Amino acid sequence: MADLIIKFVLDLIKISGMKLLVCISKSPDTTSKIAFTEGNSKFDENGVQYIVNPYDEWYALVRALELKEAGGGTVTVCTVGTATDDPIIRKALAIGADAAVRIDADPTDAYFTAMQIAEYAKTNEFDLILTGKETINYNGSQVGGMLAEALGLPFVSLASKLEVNGTTATVESEVAGGVQVSEVTIPAVISCAKGMAEQRIPNMRGIMAARTKQLTVIPPADIQALTTFETYDLPPAKAACKMIDPENMDELVSLLHNEAKVI
Fold it and tell me: Is the torsion defined by CA of 184, 190, 194, 195 positive or negative?
C-alpha cells in the first residue's frame, strides 16, 4: 500500500510540473505569391509574409498550453532557424508559451531539423514533445518521427486528441474507417493534427508579455543535412474550363473520350 501511495504522489508531482516542448517552424502565408530565383534553384523570399506553421501553432502549441493550464508545468517552444524567425517565435510567446529556444541554423532538411532539436531535448528532460503533423510549405510529416527515434521515445503521429493521466498519454488518431486509440508512457513525442485544439488569438496582454519572455539562441550541433534541393517547379496553370450546353450530350461524350485526361 505504501508503494502505491508513493507512486501516486510521484505521478501527481510529475503531471503538475510537466515540462512540455513544442516544435515550431515558419511557413509562408498561404496568400503569398510563390516564385523562385537563380534558375529555379532558390525560393524567392521577397515580399513573402511568414507565419507560424498552422499545425504547430493551432494544434501542438495550444494543446500544450491547455495541458499546462489543467495540470501546471511549463511550455517551451523550439525552432531551428535564423534571426528572421524571431517574430514568429515572439507570436508563440504571445499566445502563451513560457520560453523559447532558437537553434541558430538554416533548417535545410527534415533530418537536420529533427537532429538539432533532439540534441537540445536530450539535455532538458521534457515530459512531452509536441509537433505539428507537417509544415504547409513542405508537407513532409517527417520531423516528429525522426525526433522520436533520435531520443528513443514512443511516437504517435497525426493525433487528433491527447489526454495525459499521470505518466500515461492516451492519444486518438483518425485512420481509414475509424479512430485509433493508443496509450504510451511519457516522455513521448506526438504529432498533432486537426481536432487537437482550437486556434487562439494573442491578446494585447500576451503581446506585451512576450517582449520580456526569454528567447534563448543556441549554436547548432555539428550535424549535416542528408538532402539538398536542386530545382523547384510551379504547378502548371489551370486550363480553361469548357462549358457544355446541358442539352448537347453528344459533345460532352466526345470531349470525355477525346480530350479529358485522368489525373
Answer: positive
Sole residue written with cell 516542448: 21
| 216 touches 83 (CB < 8 A) | no
Question: How far is the C-alpha of 246 from the C-alpha of 149, rounded, in Å?
Answer: 57
Quickly count: other Cβ atoms within 10 Å of residue 81's Cβ: 20
Cα(83)–Cα(34) distance, integer angstroms: 22
Q: Which one, of 206, 221, 40, lies nearest residue 119 by Cα?
A: 221
- Is 36 part of a structural domain of the chain? yes
Q: Residues 82, 195: contact at Cβ < 8 Å?
A: no
Tell me how long the chain is: 263
pLDDT digits (tens, 9 = 90+) for 215-232: 999 999 999 999 888 888
C-beta neighbour count of 124 within 10 angstroms: 11
- Domain interval for residue 151: 2-234
Each residue of 154-186: pLDDT tens digit? 999 999 999 999 999 999 998 888 889 999 999
Q: Is residue 94 part of a domain?
A: yes
Residues 53, 59: Cα–Cα separation, whole Å: 10
